[in-house]
Amino acid sequence: MIPAKFDYVRANSVEQAIQLLQESDGEGKLIAGGHSLLPLMKFRLTEPGTLIDISQISTLKGVRKAGDRIVVGAMTTHREAATNPMIKEYIPVLAEAARQVGDIQIRNRGTVGGNIAHADPAADLPAAAIVLDAELTLQGEDGEETMSLDSFIIGPLITMMPENSVVTNVTFAIPPSHTKSTYLKYFHPASGYPVVGVAVVVGTDNDKKIDYIKVGITGAGDMVFRAETVEQALIGQVPSESVIDSAAGLAAENADMGSDLFASEEYREQLCKIYTARALKSILL
User: Fold this and answer.
1) CATH number of the domain that 22 lies in?
2) Known Gene3D superfamilies for this protein (predicted)?
C-alpha cells in the first residue's frame, strides 16, 4: 500500500504542465484531486516517475455558459459542480451525479476533469456526461482539440488522450427546456462507487408522447454506455408503467456486463433494468 518512489513538481500554467510532461519522457502523470490516481499508485498498478500537480492552475477552474453548452473547467471540484447555480439550472443531472460521488472529503478534492478523463468504468460523472453529449477540450504540443466523450473513452481506464496533453475543460450540451433529468445508482456501501448507475434526460410533447430521451449507464461494464435500445423503444410513446417496464427490460441489451466481487453479470443486468425503470418512472409517472 506504499507507492513507488516518484518526483513531485507543481505546474503554474497549462503550458508549463505540457512542458513538464514532455521532459518526463513518458514517465509523468498529472495529478489534480488525486482520488483516482493515488489508489492505483498505492497498489503499484501505475508507477509514474514524476507527479505533475495542476491543482493550482486558475485557468482550469470555473463554470460558464457558451451558446447552447455549459463549459466546466477541468479543475472544478465535485462539490462545486453539485452546488453551482448554472449547472443546477441548465444541466441538473450533472449536479445530481456530482452530489453522489464518494463522500464529503472526496467531493471537496476530486475534480470533474479527473473523474471523466480517468475513464473508470464505475465512476459517477460519465453517466451524466454521456447523456449531455459531453466534449473534452484537450491542450497539447500541437495546440487545442475537442473530442467527444464516446470517442475519448475506449475501454476501462483507457482513453484516446494525446501524449503530453492536458484536459482543460469539459463542455455539456444544454438539453431542451421541457426535459427533466435524474441520476440513480445502486452503490457499494464501503466505497460509494456505483455497481450500476443510471442517468436519464427525458421530455414529452404536448400530446404527452416522449419526444426526447437519453439514458446513460455506468458501473455495469467496461465503460459507460448509452442504452440506445431503451431510447428507441420509448421515443414517440405515451409513458405508462407497462411501457416503461418493457423498455427498461432492454437496458442491458448489446452491452457487455462486468462481473466482480460486488456483482455478477446477471445481477448487474437486473440492476440495469430496475434502475432504468426507477429513473424513468421518477420523472414520467
Assistant:
1) 3.30.43.10
2) 3.30.465.10, CO dehydrogenase flavoprotein, C-terminal domain, Uridine Diphospho-n-acetylenolpyruvylglucosamine Reductase, domain 2
